[in-house]
Amino acid sequence: MRWSSVFKFVLGVLFAIALLAVGGVVAARVMMARLAVMPPKPTFPNDTPTKPASKPAAKPAASTSEAKSDTAAKPLPPGAFPARVTQSIGLVLRDAPGGDGGSIGGVDFNERVTVLETNADKTWQRIRLSNGQEGWVRAGNVEQISQ
After folding, report:
1. pLDDT over 90 (residue 50)
2. The pTM is what?
């Protein structure tokens, strides 16, 4: 056995190990780069498209006063109370009590609402938002607050 052939063998093994190491590092970096990017938000057929609302400077002041006058114009039924949303992801506002009621909007976490009534089996509550919109939400997701 000659020293040159042993040297070539050892050099070949070291070269193979180096190639595997470099390939592993490159593969790991590619995977880390792909996993670092957030995937696109999924959309479903029943989602309503949302458009960013552009608010003119004079419009909010007028709409706020109109909402207050609408709220003041509608009397509160007996047993109505102020509440806040406790569900951390918010609530779906529906036009009728039950899961089959159509979605007419949403209510954010910690938003103040007025609970107007509760249905007969106490599973849904009709609420009024600060802008005067009314709808139904699942009971147990709001808590009564003191005024």
Report:
1. no
2. 0.50
